[in-house]
């Protein structure tokens, strides 16, 4: 418990920034019209490939005996890949709606 309190005291500014980013994100997404929400989310999912790169870096720098970091890194790679592929699939389906039918 003491470790958690020390972490909160040492990281107080970062915690405030994260909380403010959460509120800002809610405000920005809340003001997006529903017509644009699906393209915005599918594009954001596709861009989240950065998560995959970060997870690969975590797995690469983890010690061979640190199974927690390797396991979480692998899970992040799998979930990030699903997110990216899902973003591309949704975007592709939306673009198909705007093509002229033969």
Write up what this structure looks like.
With 102 residues, the protein is an all-alpha fold. The protein folds into two domains: 1-31; 34-102. It is 84% helix and 0% strand. It is built from five helices and no strands. The protein has helices at residues 2-10, 12-30, 34-47, 49-61, 67-97. Helix 3 crosses helix 5 (67-97) and helix 4 runs antiparallel to helix 5 (67-97). The radius of gyration is 19 Å and the shape is flat.
Any low-confidence stretches, pLDDT <50, length ≥5?
none
Order of helices and strands: HHHHH
Query: What helical percentage do the residues reach?
Result: over 70%
CA radius of gyration is 19 Å
Topology:
Layout: H1 2-10, H2 12-30, H3 34-47, H4 49-61, H5 67-97
Helix pairs in contact: 3-5, 4-5
Key descriptive features of the protein:
102 residues; mainly alpha; 5 helices; 84% helix
How would you briefly describe this protein structure?
With 102 residues, this protein is mostly helical. The chain has 5 helices and no strands.
